[in-house]
Write a structure and sequence with these properties.
2 domains; globular; alpha+beta; Glutaredoxin; 192 residues; binds glutathione; single chain; Glutathione S-transferase Yfyf (Class Pi), Chain A, domain 2
């Protein structure tokens, strides 16, 4: 069975887990600490990032967008029915990139060296990305790659930035609620 190297808070890993479960693809979950660069991770993915999917034949598939394509092909799914799905995935992932950069800036620097303009620069991207996806909400009943990416991104924001992004974004919070109501079996895949 393929093994997914991941960690519970990782939004990109959550996206992949949501899609795999929805497509009925069984994967074994293995938690890794990227900060320790374990060989199981580095041997598969030179970038040392998660998610990384280790296949039964010994090869590795990495970067969540590549894994999504791999899962979709494996299950003959319809995650990428149109370009909109790809664009929403790109913006949702970009929101995560900026949110994560924000977290890393605060986590990895001594407090006096945290650079507020960098935090603001990244947060502006998160805000603009949220505005954009708010105007391009993907379907919830039959989710595509955009829907999984967006649900994972909103889950990450709820986890790390709760109270900072929701005001005035009822369409997005309602969308997440509708997604969870339509797929109660998937909530255990959200960032935690
Ligand atoms: N573009 C990558 C981003 C993956 C990523 O940045 N993952 C984070 C965890 S959420 C990570 O591995 N960080 C450790 C590092 O950058 O060394 C993807 O979509 O898979």
């Amino acid at each position: 069975m393929p093994r997914l190297l991941y960690s519970p808070p990782s939004p990109y890993s959550a996206k992949v887990r949501l899609a795999a479960k929805h497509l009925g693809i069984a994967i074994e979950l293995e938690t890794v600490n990227t900060g320790q660069a374990p060989s199981v991770l580095i041997d598969g993915n030179p970038l040392g990032k998660i998610p990384t999917l280790l296949l039964d034949d010994g090869s590795a598939v990495f970067d969540s967008r590549v894994i999504m394509r791999h899962l979709d092909r494996s299950a003959k799914g319809e995650l990428f029915a149109d370009e909109t799905a790809e664009l929403i995935e790109a913006v949702a992932d970009g929101i995560c990139d900026s949110a994560l950069a924000h977290v890393y800036e605060r986590r990895n620097r001594p407090e006096e060296k945290v650079h507020q303009p960098v935090l603001d620069w990244q947060w502006d991207k998160v805000s603009r990305g949220l505005d954009w996806v708010g105007d391009h909400l993907p379907p919830t009943a039959k989710p595509d790659a955009g829907g999984f990416a967006l649900r994972a991104a909103l889950g990450y924001l709820a986890l790390r930035f709760g109270g900072k992004w929701e005001a005035g974004r009822d369409a997005l919070t309602d969308w997440a609620t509708a997604f969870d109501s339509a797929h109660p079996d998937l909530t255990d895949c959200l960032p935690a």
